[in-house]
Structures are given as structure tokens and as C-alpha cells.
Amino acid sequence: MSQPQAKFLKDYQAPDFHITHIDLDFSLAGKQTEIIATSTVRRQGSHQSPLILVGDDIQLQSVLINGEAAQYVERAGELVIETKLNEFELQVRSSLDPEANTSLEGLYMSDGAYCTQCEAEGFRRITYFLDRPDVLAIYTVRITADKQAFPYLLSNGNLVESGETSDGLHFAQWHDPFPKPAYLFALVAGDFDLLEDRFTTCSKRDIKLQVFVDKGNLHKAHHAMASLKKSMAWDESRFNLEYDLDIYMIVAVDFFNMGAMENKGLNVFNTKFVLADKDSATDDDYHGIESVVGHEYFHNWTGNRVTCRDWFQLSLKEGLTVFRDQEFSSDLGSRAVNRIHAIKIMKNQQFAEDSGPMAHPIRPESVIEMNNFYTVTVYNKGAEVIRMMHTLLGEASFQKGMALYFERHDGQAVTCDDFVAAMEDASGVDLTQFRRWYSQAGTPQVDIKEQFDSETNTYTLTLAQSIPATPDGSAKLPLHIPFDIELIDPAGESIVNKVLDFTQEQQVFSFENIQQQPVASLLQDFSAPVKLNFDYSVAQLVHIMRYATSEVAKWEASVALFSQSVWQNVERLQQQQAMFIDPRIIDAFKGVILAEDLDKALMAEILTMPSAGSLIEQKSTVDLDNLALAREFVVLEIAENCEDELLATVRELASIDDAAARSLKNVCLNLLVKVDNTHAELAQKQFAQAINMTDSLAALTALNSEPSAIRDQLMSQFEKKWLKTPLVMDKWFALHATLNDTLCIATLKALFEHQAFSFNNPNRVRSLIGIFAAANTFEFHRKDGLGYEFLADAIVKLNTLNPQVAARIITPLIQFKKFDSERQQLMTQQLNRILKVENLSKDLYEKVTKALA
Ligand code: B3K
Ligand code: ZN
């Protein structure tokens, strides 16, 4: 077998043919599902090349051109059609078996309903087509199916006709007036409960809103509907963007490879991001639903109306849409807490990707399997790049840039450069150097030196930037970095608050009229996705925690205080010295628990001790065994010394019905249970009295740090209660997967047989296996290698069932460079084993070969 080949951005060529219209006729009949695709095809330019369509796993029946048998060859993944005509009607008849499709790409079944997933290249699993985002066509779709089993027949756009045919069948015909690429096509057929509502747009158009959920779940659809209405209103008020069709549908399905999909007018969602009621969903789940519903809705303009020329431009729509959904959440809720969540994703996951074998620029230059590039780099670093432009331009000019972008490109498939050009032209800001953010992989490091001259009253910051080499070989030239700082005087007054334009390899910034040595709060609000190298003293960090104007800066300082102490103790352990914590650190955390002027959700963030995974990301090499001991020590020292304050907080907030209060209470409870077993009773009591999932799950999580009889008892109560609610069982599986205990892996293996578990369902796989590998750091990295073997076994199994999911959960196994040589060897041993698997998917092939290179 030949090895999968990479495609390169530099090889982009406009298509030889365009398809302007397509009529799809689906006869949904299980294993023998028939599809007739009739397209209007137009040759572009004066070439003589044949028309080459792509397709995967299609059983071809016939090909006609203008009603006559066409001359064609079918070869690996392609249909080559010879014709001299410049414009013609092409009819392709084919069939496929959606029931056998476990990859969940193309047309497949989820719990008895037909549904589709076409991004990135799933449409070619439905019919032979020009499956590339720069081919935009107008779609008409007719669906025929059994009326009783599939009362709802849905597709993009507006319903134009429906009715019954013979033998208990019925049909629906849909028309989408907006030309779109094939990846935005969707079809759903099934039996659902339906929640309906309406929205009046700013120009007084009346839009019908529909949320389809599995039978019996109607009461869990209200939050998603409310989130949709908020999204529509917000996009009008902040971005001046109005919805365009007369109907907007969301369908929730249990079998789904990712979070949701923005198909034009017919979003398909993972149930996880639709279904919620207080009993079964946590405050975080509610927040997640609001943000994903928003994200998919915002794609209607950033992604659908203006789409990508090719898949290398993915960040054009994803980075921008993540930026938009982050702004939506921040305008509606706490800006600081939302920012902290975004920063955590960057530092814990994106920095890891940037320093690992899959490092790529936000606009990748070469790709083997496109599905591997729906990454934290393209999405989250992409959003940071948009955020930096927003910082450099300011809101008003940024909005002018958005308006110009739509004015120029509505209805087109464009590039990241087109977006930057619109921003530049609308604002007059020169973004030439800034564009390097699109082509350079890796996390820039910023080294900082400070100097205070008390004679001249001058404070000086010297900034130096460098980017470590990455395996993709992309250039590493100086970047345009907006660097946000605050200078705080000894009395706690803010004396300077500004964004520095940091563009050179090394640059000096001087501040005059500074009377006393200030404390600098650097890279405030994470104003650029860079790593900061500055040796803060404990006193400086405590000062920032107390006086910084920015709440995010307070949190950053608390993370730095905690982390410094952990690393110092790792060193002490390596030198066989006793561990120690500076009492000023304990006082700083105690000060936060006692603070009266801080937002409770922010306090909860500060009191959430940085995870082992996030600590690992701070270093290029890690002594994992001592890290475990040192982290445990610092957490315990803080918790023990704050026991009274923690206890008082838990009691005070016990019955306050507010998400921020709950999050603070539950963080405190978690720390308390670590201090002393007697506090386990508190958790037990909370579990017994809980009236919402947030509190039940927090009680269980607090008890989940080590095995105990109480834990086991509550876990089985929980299991009995929720056995028939898959999304809650996911939480139960995840608790098992994060137990820090040597028996963890054996338990997980036994759970493969659990009636609620299935390898075919991505949510179940992620909660049991994905979470284990990504979040149970010390069990996954066991010295005997059993954690790696467990993950590799699952990946081998998923290689044929669902390659996309397999390639997603492999991430912790390919990021092995930081660990000791024994662990590295055990990890690469498993990777080599995966590489030898017969019929290894392109998805895994790309990641494993890059890791082993
Ligand atoms: N655009 C989809 C992601 C598709 C992933 C394909 N592997 C969801 C989103 O980003 O909104
Ligand atoms: Zn998206």
C-alpha cells in the first residue's frame, strides 16, 4: 500500500469546473439508500481536462451527461468523466449503507435517525462531487422515507413542498437560496420532540426557530433555545449582523464526533451542547451550551456567507468565530472569568501542541488528513490572533474592518489574507509584520529585564523575543506583539497602564517620572499568545494579587505564586531537602478567601490549584514523580492553613442558589476534603441534599481524589439514578477515569462492558478513555507503561471504527518529549505498535509518523 500523501497550500489551484446548482434526491431505505445527484456543471477557462469528482465508499450505479450515458472511469476515490462540453447537466446515481457507517462522517445513523456530517470532506461519502470549499452551489434536496419511523425530514434552507407518496412513504423538498460549499450541506430524518419559538430581527423579519431533541427530552431544550435567541440579538447589536433565512433549526444527536456543526439553517449538535436541566446538567454545562449555540450561530456570517477558499484557511472562519463566541460570553457574563478559561486552553493545550510533533501555524502549510487540523492552534490561537488585531485597531476600527470584509466578500470563498487586508484598509493600521502570525508555528518566548534608576526617576523594561524551532520548519522572524502592562507603585496605585508595540527582536521601553521602584504586571489579559520569562519575586506577585487593576492579572499572579513554589519544592526533593512553603504564599491565598470585594467566580478561579497538566506545560523537561509530590505538598499546605476560612466559606454559601457562589463553595469543599477525612462527611451531606447536578457532581469530585467506602457508595447511588441518562453517565465514567489510584486502569477496562458504554459513541469514548489520557496525569504516565498500553489498545480498536476520534484522543501519547527517557521509550513503543496496524487510517498515520520522526 502506498503511504498517504500531504497536500500543500502553495499548490492551490482554482477548480477546472464549477457546479452552480445541485438537486439531490435521497431515498432513505437503510442499507440500500439511493441518491440521485443532478448538477449544473460549467467548465472554467479554456482547458480540455476531464471533470474529476471525488468520492469515498460510494456504490456507483450510473453517470449521465445531458440525459445520455457518460464516458467515465472510476478509480481510487475519484470519478473521471470525459467530455468536451463546456456546460452540461450531470446526473450521478449511487447507493450507500448509512447503518454500516461508524466513522460518523457523511450520512450515518444516530440512535435510529439519519444524519450527516460533511465538514471537512464528508460530502464525498454521500455522492461523487467537487468536494472543496471554493465550489459554491445552490442546493435543492428531496428526501423520501418511511413516514412512521421518520416523521421529520430536514435539510438546509426553506421547505418548499412535502407530502405522501405510496406505501407509507412521505417526502419533503428543501431549497437553500444561498450558494454554499458542500461541507455545509445537511440532512436529518427521524422522530423527535420539537421545541418551537420565534425571533424578530432588527429589520422586523419573523424567523421560525426549532430545536429537535430525542423523544422525552423536550424539557431539556429550553436553555439552548434561549441561548439561540440571545445569540441572534447579540450579533445584531455588537456586529450589526442579521439572520438571513426564514427558519433556523438545531437537531441534537447522541452520536457525534465533535461539539456541533454550523450547516446552513440546519445545525446538527452533539446532545452535550443542547440538553440541560438543573437535575442533570452543571453550571458549566449551561455555559458550554450557550457558547456553542452562539458559536454555530455566528458561523452563519463568519463561515457560511463568507467561507474559506481552501482548508488551509480554516482559521479564517474558526479563529474569527471563536473570537466572536468568546466576546458573546464575555458581554453576557463575567469577562474576567471567560478570559481566564480561554487563557487556560491556550497555556495548557495550545502551548503543548506548539511544542509537540503536530506544531503548525494557524494557517497550516501542509496537511495529510484535514480532520487533524481542527486544533487548539487553528481555533484558539486563531482567536488570539484576531483578538490581537482587535487590540491594535480598537473596537470601532475593528468593526469597520468587519463591515468592509462583508461588503467585499459576501458570497465568496476567501483567504486569511483577504480578512487582514480588510482590517488594514478599514483602519489604516499597517499589518504587514503582523501577518507573520499566520505563517509561523511555535510559541514565542519573551524574556524581560527591568531596571529602575532612582536618580533620573526612569523605569526601563527590556523585552527580547524568540521562537523555538518547530518540526514543520516554518520561519521564526520577529512578530508584532501587543504587550499590555500595568505599573503599580509601592502604595498600590496604578501609575502606567498601556499596550506596548513590541515589534523588534529586542526593544527597550522607558517610563519617565517614576518616583519609586514600581511592580510591573506584565502581559496583562494575555494580550498576546506568548510565554513570559520573568523572575517575579514572591513580594511582587503578592503585590499584583492585591493591587492589579485587572482581575485576570490577579489570577495570573496567583498561578505564578503557586507554580513557583511547586518547582522550588521539586528542586528540594531532587536535592533530598525537606519541602517548604513561603508563609506569604499561604497568606495571599487566605487573603483571597477572606476578600470582600472580589467576584466569587474569580475567587473560585484563584482557589482552583493549577493542575499537574498545566504545570508540565511550564517546563521543557519534567521530573514527573517529584512533581506529583511537590504539587500535593503545596496544595495541602495551603488547604491546611486555610481550613477555618474554607470551612466558613462552605457553610456561608451552602444554600445560595447562584452559579458563582456554587463554584466558590465547591472549590473550597474540594480543598477541605483533602485536609482531613472528617470533611468527607461535608461532601456526603452535600451529595444527599443537592438539588442540582453542579452540587452533586462537586461532592463526588471532592471525594474522588482517593478510593474510599463513602466514594464507592455514592458512586453506585449515582449510577443507579442516572443509568438511562447518557450525558450524566459520561460524568460518571469521567470520574472513574480521573481517579488517582493504581486500580484505575483495571476499573476502566471492566467498564468497557458496562451497559451504558459503547466504543461506537464518541461521547462515551471521550469520557472514559480520552479524559483518562488527558487529565489523569499520574495514572496515564505510570512508570510501568500500563497507561500508555491502555490508550494504545483503545486507539487500535478505534482505528477502523472511528478514525477521527482515535486520532483526537491520541494527543497525550504523541507529546512525550518532556518526560524521562524510560517513559519516552514506553510511549514510543506504543506508537510503533500503532504504526504497524494494518489499514492504519490517514488520521493516525499523520500523527504517529510525525511523533516518531
Ligand atoms: N465547523 C465544525 C467543526 C467540523 C470538524 C470536522 N472534523 C464545528 C465548529 O467549529 O463550529
Ligand atoms: Zn466553528
From TrEMBL:
Cofactor section: Zn(2+)
InterPro entries to which the protein is assigned, alphabetical: Aminopeptidase_N-like_N, Aminopeptidase_N-like_N_sf, PepN_Ig-like_sf, Peptidase_M1, Peptidase_M1_dom, Peptidase_M1_pepN, Peptidase_M1_pepN_C, Peptidase_M1_pepN_C_sf
Keywords: Aminopeptidase, Hydrolase, Metal-binding, Metalloprotease, Protease, Zinc
Stretches assigned to the Peptidase M1 alanyl aminopeptidase C-terminal domain: 539-853
One of the GO biological process terms: proteolysis
This protein's record includes keyword Zinc: yes
Domain Aminopeptidase N-like N-terminal, chain residue ranges per copy: 72-184
Domain of life, source organism: Bacteria
Reaction catalysis annotation: Release of an N-terminal amino acid, Xaa-|-Yaa- from a peptide, amide or arylamide. Xaa is preferably Ala, but may be most amino acids including Pro (slow action). When a terminal hydrophobic residue is followed by a prolyl residue, the two may be released as an intact Xaa-Pro dipeptide
Gene3D superfamilies from the UniProt entry: 2.60.40.1840, 3.30.2010.30, Neutral Protease Domain 2, Peptidase M1, alanyl aminopeptidase, C-terminal domain, tricorn interacting facor f3 domain
Enzyme class: hydrolase
Family membership noted in the UniProt record: Belongs to the peptidase M1 family.
UniProt protein name: Aminopeptidase N
Organism: Shewanella pneumatophori
